[in-house]
Amino acid sequence: MAEDTPKNVYQNAADQRALRTFALWMGWAISAITVFAMMSRKANVLEFIQQDQTRVTWLIVGMFVLGVAVSFVQAMKLTTEWFRAYRIASLIESKGLAGIQQRGGGHIVDHIVDALHVIVERNGRADVDALIDVEFSAQHRVSQFAGLLGNLMITLGLIGTVLGMTITMNGLNGALGSLGTDDTLLVEGLRSAMNGMGVAFYTTLIGSVLGGVLLRVFSWITDASINGLQDLMLRTCVVHASADLEPSDERDFRALDATVQQLQSRVELLNLALQASREEMGSLRNEASKMHTELGQLADNDPIRKMAAGHARYALSIRPNLLTRLFRRRD
Question: Does pTM surpass 0.85?
Answer without folding.
Answer: no
